[in-house]
Amino acid sequence: MVEFFLLVVIIFATFVGAKNKNIKIAPYILSVFFGVIIGLLLHKQFATYFNAKTGLDYPFGSTAAFILLLMLGAILFYALLITFYHIDEKSAEKIYRFFGHANIVLVPVATGTLFVLLCLLVSELPVKGIDPLQKQIGDSSVTKYSKKLIQGSGIDLRFVDTASLSKQQTSETIVPLAIKTSTITFDQKIEYDMLDKINAQRKNEGLEPLNYDNALSNVARDHSIDMMNKRYFAHISLSGKTPFDRLHDAKISYDLAGENLAVSDSVDKAITALMESPTHRANILNKDFHKAGIGIAINQDGVLVISQEFTN
Fold first, then answer.
1. I need a surface site. Which of 118, 137, 151, 309 has the fewest CB within 10 A?
2. Residues with Cβ within 8 Å of residue 238, at least 6 apart in sequence
3. Is the pLDDT of residue 149 over 80?
4. Model's pTM, two decimal places?
5. Nearest-angstrom CA–CA distance, 131 and 16
6. 177-211 tens-digit pLDDT
7. Is residue 51 within 8 Å of residue 61, measured between CB atoms?
């Protein structure tokens, strides 16, 4: 659907650009392109700040941040063009006339870009009742590509059926979770089951089992719920809290600490994937760790967002 309407928009904009050589269009077109460049260059840094200040979920917040940067960049560049026009009208008109001859290309490109951004924004709106429309827009190849460009490669929770999705290596990098979650629950039995499986791996290596720690589990669970609720996957939260900040806030004392994260549809697949990752495996089999807390957020489709906290 999106591809069809995009094609219609581009054809119509091409017709308008071919028929209209008005040089007054040039400042608007150039401003849009400048805004897109500013958005692409700065949106990751700005999105981090924007999400921290607004509390929006990551996919919508990062998209809104990009569009806001585009608008600010376009307004700034337009103001500069108008200022230049008043300083040197003849030179400005020459530039506008040059770009006016390219309206047949510039108008459809600019219009198509704005249409795609509008589709992306609608697909990420945190509004209930439009899920079928958002799914149709979000599943289009055009929207998927623009999401990847603006938000980065994400994890689509609708298609979590292999353990490989749990191998995401995260530090400061934020990975978007590409589906809304209507309900979030947790089951302590599943968390205990994961700890048993971790201790089974340690036993195979001749290591002492980890003791379950309720305070660590609360920290882990809160982070898992926050990630699922705000649709991101990272050690550092959208508010800028590191794993060590979260332990400190919970008044947990430690000399050594570590954290593992995973997304999967089962504990067994998550454990398999974590053990296949050298950094995650190192935490699970660290002989200096003696305590562990497991926090698992579960969405309405049974997808697990998992946090594992380890201390000595």
1. 118
2. 48, 51, 52, 55, 58, 61, 174, 226, 230, 232
3. no
4. 0.76
5. 34
6. 766 677 889 899 999 999 999 999 999 999 999 99
7. yes
| The predicted structure's pLDDT at residue 286 | 93
Q: Which residue is listed with tokens 């697990």?
A: 304
In whole angstroms, give the CA distance from residue 169 to residue 175.
9
Lookup: tokens for 285 = 């089999």
- Per the CB < 8 A criterion, the answer to whether 59 and 231 are in contact is yes
The residue assigned the tokens 């026009």 is 85
Q: Which letter does DSSP use for residue 140 in this model? A: S
Distance of CA 226 to the CA centre of its chain: 14
> For the purposes of burial, counting CB atoms within 10 Å of the CB of 8, is it exposed (0-12), middle (13-18) or buried (19 or more)?
exposed
Distance separating alpha carbons of residues 60 and 306, to the nearest angstrom? 22
Could you identify the residue written with the tokens 């980890």?
Answer: 210
Q: Quick one: how far is CA 274 from the chain centroid? A: 22
Instruction: Give the 3-state secondary structure percentages of the chain, helix then strand then coil, rounded to 5.
Output: 65, 10, 25
- Band of the pLDDT at 300, cuts 50, 70, 90? confident
d(CA 31, CA 220): 46
Please give the Cα distance from 231 to 38 (Å, whole number).
25
Q: Please give the single-letter amino acid code of residue 162.
A: T
Structure letter (DSSP) for residue 182? S
Q: Which amino acid, residue 68?
A: L
